[in-house]
Amino acid sequence: MRYRLILPAIGFVLAGLAPLSLSVSAQDVIGSGANAFAQLGQELPSPNVYRTASGAPGHAYWQQQADYDIDARLDEDARRIDASARIVYTNNSPDALRYLWLQLDQNRFKKDSLDRRSRTVSSDRVSYRNLRDHQAVSVGDYGYRNLSFTGESGEEMPFVVVDTMVRVDLPKPLASGEYVSFNVEWTFDIIERDTVRSRGGYEQFYESDTQIFFLSQWFPRLAAYSDYDGWHNKAFLGSGEFTLEFGDYDVSLTVPDNHIVSSTGALANAGDVLTSEQQERLASAGSDKPRFVVTPEEALANEKTEATGTRTWRFEAENVRDFAWASSSKFIWDAMAHEQPGAKHERVLAMSFYPNEAEPVWSKYSTQAVVHTMDVYSRFSFDYPYPTAQSVNTWEGGGMEYPMITFNGYRPDPPRAKEDDPESAESRAAAELAYSRRIKYGLIGVVIHEVGHIYFPMVVNSDERQWTWMDEGLNTFLEYVAELEWEEDFPAFRRISNSLINETNVLDMIPEYMMSPNQVPVMTQSDSVLRLGPNAYSKPAAALTVLRETVMGRELFDFAFREYAQRWKFKRPTPSDFFRTMEDASGVDLDWFWRAWFYTTDYVDMAITDVRAYQLKSGDPDVDYPLDRDEHNRDNPVPVNVERNQAEGIVPREERFEALKDLYSENDRYTVTNKDRNSAADKFKKLEPWEQRAFNQAIEDDDYFYFVDFENLGGVPSPLMLHIQYEDGSSRELELAAEIWRKNSIKVTHRLIEDKPIAYIEVDRRHQTADADYSNNRFPSAIHQSRLSAYKSDSKKRNLMADMLHELKDSAKVNADDGKSAPLKPANGG
């Protein structure tokens, strides 16, 4: 609607053109704008000599070091690991330590582990997976066995196992700056990964009776000891992962002699485990495309050949916080070089290991995705710091990360040609070369995600046991960046089926979660998060996307993010270090953003609730009064009673009797008098000269004034990204900073002064703020045309008599007790 704006004759000040806030009651303001934009200082830890107020490590920052020499043997038939290690632990802290804590994550699979004793369910249901999980753990003897700790001279060191942790008591306190060396031995049975969804184990291929072994969280590892938390000795419950100490590793892995091994580190004895041709292939890997080190044919031959003995593979790794490996007779191995001139490792070997069942999608995409990840992530952080980066196909879906090595899922679905089909062999051969859209993008996405984790948290060593989002959220954000640089239509954050991709980006997907009641703030301890995926992955990724693309802009964000990564590589940051660094390096106050996105369960929902349009009155009654009359008539239509009287031919009495008319009959309240003219002239003369000039210029400009009411319905303050569409068909974009909500985070009014009339105003037209409801983002609102699909209901009811006459498709079932076949019978035994 458009109105003429009455300006006061006295006190018209140009400074009044700044954005306005609606006057609201004190109750509206309390707990809104003032708190939303309060500084985070009181919530964050106080800066100290270890962690500065700028977010950088302090001058007295320290962290421990743990070095390992490990000898491990894989017993393929028994599916068991037997191992021993010499560990050197250096105390760089200012504290004397009377004991050490180590992680025993394999103990999570014990029958009486804290993880299993603290599980809950959401309904009275039991799935087949539940049955398999229970049976596997009940029958097997999992967790560490034959565990022992001895000192340098062979003396026994007392220890106490506490679920997935073990405390080792030292013979004397370990003083600051000193180190202790000790030995540990252990054994454990390797669990079948699919039975319990573990991060390591083995995958069984039943048709060929072969396995892929992938060993993670497999050795007693020194728990972290930090300035902010002391010993990090919370039990592992399967969700929150870990933060560990950096160190150097020398690991010897003895495996069957038909196996190929992928591992953290660089292979130190290639001449002992590879043929001369395989060594030449590995050495000549180029940067243009992957090259086979172990070909599919060689892998198939290894798989079909029984092991005749064992072979020891030796790997060395410097400055890593963990160690993982995979071993199988099924592995194809390809390699490609990632070039980074000037870096510590100018030529990084990107490698993939996978069975023939993963082809052809793995040889086409896996190693290329490894290199692409390093290309993108290094631009946002630092040069890739290790000599190798590996992707290993170890299960059907999902992934897991460790230094230099990642375990990744996705392989083509097995072909299903019918046995009685005369073209079955041909159909099966064709199917083996096919893979679905879901498999293609699932593989590329998981490789990017897991290799990205080598940067966060394997180098930037955040603590996922406490703050899952610090590596999962930051990494998912960079994964999103890398995926869109792989392919502009990459289905990141989209539900993929073989026939349809639901075109949804992270900012359109996350509001559904952010509006849900079943959530906790991002800053919740990992094991207490209700829905880990959206809370730790998607929501932080969405937040950082909004921060980069909308709040800060790419230049400021990218500089600050690189500063954070470089400050904290090979160190252990906390959330306050990230928050402070992003503000310190960018010069942007982001406390309101961290508070809303990370400390609350609010969401983004900006609404335009009203727009009022005006033009300035000229101050001349002969011009203004007729326009006032027109506006009054427009906004006050003739009463329906009068219209119907006219339709019925009823003539008002005043019209029928001339003597009843007077001055007021011919002149309404908008009739101009000389007094009105004189009064207007007097008011103008009383204005200061500068006020007269300003007013005359405004009348000459003939601008349009719009007062736009915005409401923050979701609670999260947000910049207002406006699309202004004019009546002449032109448009412009305008960004109102999030600070518009600083005095009232619920309702504000902003004034626009335009040189032409506006047709409509729209908020977040480009979907860049994660707004939850776009139906209230345009004023005036628009009707959106879409389409419906017709459907026919198909309600089928059970017919017991007819069902009893059906011929059995499977005439026998295996008796679980004795393995014999028994005929199937109706439930009533007849």
Question: Can you walk me through this structure?
Answer:
- This protein is of the alpha+beta class and 830 residues long.
- Among the domains are: 2-31 and 607-779, no CATH class; 63-119 and 128-200, Sandwich (Immunoglobulin-like), CATH 2.60.40.
- The strands form 8 sheets. It has a 7-stranded mixed β-sheet. Strands 17-20-21-22-24-23 form a 6-stranded mixed β-sheet, sandwiched between helices.
- A hairpin with a 6-residue loop joins β32 (812-814) and β33.
- α12 packs across α14 (532-552) and α15 crosses α16.
- The termini are far apart.
- Mean pLDDT is 89; it is low at 1-32, 496-503 and 811-830.
- Keywords: Aminopeptidase, Hydrolase, Protease, Signal.
Placed side by side, the strands forming the largest sheet appear as 5-8-3-2-14-18-16
Query: What is the rounded Rg?
Result: 36 Å
The coarse overall form would be elongated
Low-confidence stretches: 1-32, 496-503, 811-830
* Beta-strand residue percentage: 15-25%
pLDDT averaged over residues: 89
CA distance, first residue to last residue = 80 Å
Largest sheet: 7 strands, mixed
Number of strands: 33
The total count of helices amounts to: 24
Helix content percent band: 25-40%
Task: Provide the structure class.
Answer: alpha+beta
